[in-house]
Design a protein that fits this description.
By secondary structure, the chain is α/β, with parallel strands linked by helices. Helix content is 37%, strand content 21%. The protein starts with a helix and ends with a helix.
Amino acid sequence: MRFSMFISLLRPIGPVIVGISLGFTLSLLSVNWVEESCVVDGKASDEISSIQDGNSKGARRPNSISSPNDVDPDENYEPRIVPYKPVQQSQPKKVFRAKYIDTELGIREPLFVGILTSKNTINTLGVAVNRTISHHLDTVVFFTGTRNRKVPHGMFVVTHGDERLIWNMFQTVKYILEHYVNEYDWFYLAQDDTYTQADRIKHLVAHLSMDRELYMGSPEEFIGGEMEGRYCYGGFGYLLSRTLLLRLQPFLENCRNDILSARPDEWLGRCVIDYAKSHCVDEHEGLRYVRYEMGKNSDPSKEDNVQFKNALTVHPVSDPEQMYRLHKHFTQIELQRTYDEIEKLQREIKNVSEVAFDGNRSSQWPIGINPPFEPKSRFEVLRWDYFTEEQVYSCIDSSPKCELRGVDRLDVADVIEIAMGELNKKYKPVLHLKKQQLINGYRRFDPTRGMEYTLDLQLEAVNQKGRSRSITKRVHLVRPLSRIEIIPMPYVTEATRVHVILPLAFQDRGYVGNFLEVFAASSFETSENAILTFLFIYDPLEAQQVSQNDIFASVKAQINAYERKYPAVKIPWISVKTETPSQIKFMDIISKKHPVDTLFFLANVNTNINSEFLNRCRMNSINNWQVFFPIHFQDYNPDIAFHNQEPPPTMDLVKDAGHFDRSTFEEACFYNSDYMATRTRMASDVQENEEILETLDIYDMFVKYSILHVFRAVEPALHQKYRYQACNPRLSEDIYHRCVQSNLDGLGSRSQLAMLLFEQEQGNST
């Protein structure tokens, strides 16, 4: 009993006792154990003390903190003050960074192509080679000894200045080593009488190891057979690796001085064999250099040789026409192979989809084309347009029905022809189908996949026995969008000066004040790089009275007032006399008074011009490439758009306030050089019919006679207030109707006009 009571009293303090015991034990273990030095005859033994000192340094004692007794008492422990010396920072090295990432990373282009040509053939076979391979390859350089003064357009020609064949080959290899050896992995050289299948050459080098010393082509024995090895015959072209050329580079001068040969390809082969220890091969790593020798006056379409169909190069080509025929034939072969590969992939997709969870529904039709657009709301539903072979029931001018003509008619005829071809391909030889008529036709444009068609065709089906009957068949077709490409555009800046040309007629005088006020705020006060030029248009009677009664005197007074207000600004003007105002006639006068690199903007007196638009005018007008015709935002008639309301002081770009006027082409941005070049092209037509200057405007002239891109787009920064335009009936019928249509579209929106008519009918009924 007593023992159990003792245990019960001890249990609460047991952990405390155990903890105290452990604490004492650990403290004892961490105490320094100091040994007394041994004394012999009252003296400390130096030997023993030195051993103890060595042990004290060589092995640590139980505690990790050094004590003062461990240190030599004779050592001086006085602190020393080290003076601070600031570190002199050296000038950082300027790191050179490459302009392009591939240059810094050492990434090279795969293939360089050099064509060996001559003065006599560069304008014939050389041009044919350039037209057949240049758009498939990144770099094609033509090497010749001498050439004519005029170089064919679109060709990069290097002239060596000598017609000796060996010298030209030496200079060609030297030029490649100096300019291109660090930019490309493979170098392909061929003659201008060789047809090259560019895509197959690219495919070949893409599967070859770039670090191999490879000399690949059509191996030939040396003349006489005395020298060992083979060289690559130049007629079929040959490939040289970058590694091989770098090894050959130190010995190129030795090859020129020591090797004698009558043929340039044989000379190069001996140089490669002697100094690079490489021989010409036509097969490497399982890849073959397939070539074909063309017979004289052979027809490529009749060649049925397997080697010909798989050839990388064909030689010899006698004339440019044969070169083009070869290119057409090989293009058809590659196109058919592409179609066969697409059909094979479609069959594989269809077979795989059958074992999928959703079955055949998991594969979209047509196979490989994006699925149809799925609208998220009723406002996104794509509209189907109904058509027949003669008419379409959705017109640009919002008419319910109009004649099917132009490209639309060609499109419908092409779709019906394709549908009949596919139906006969499917049902032959059991049935032969003939079109009787198109019952119904529907089409819509799906931005995710292309143009979709649904056709209800009435057909005559004829079986193998000659019996026929009329049937109706519905077919679905898709004209898919082709592969989207990024078109490179020339570099332009926003530093170009814009010359704003403002034509002004008698009826425009009252709007000049507002135009100058807006232009001054956006250009004069901000020092915008723009010059405003007025073009005063007088008719013959007004021009005779200009000294007594100048109709533009008030405008000229306003110009003088702004020049006094802004001393750095000069506003020139030009006066012209004409009965029929014509943009082309005006620009003929203005163009002669400005340099060829002048950027013009043809403005309208009702247009509000700002810096934002002027910058877009600079960016969208590219010399010798593109002209820009902006579509301004036109305010509606305030009496209709804000009927029985007070119009706001500033108009926003909303559908109830105005619209983008697609019927007007007055505003234009273009360079003077582009205008002069286009004007030159239409000179012959003007000589035959001078009235063409009055029937065409600047837009029609660029579309019809220039080779430039005509860029027309909505421009939100170009704002124009409402004004009824007086349309001149002396101009062409097309320009006059566009002016009338612009006036009608500018009245108001359909809902606003309908509401106004409704109110008038309500008022008449009461």
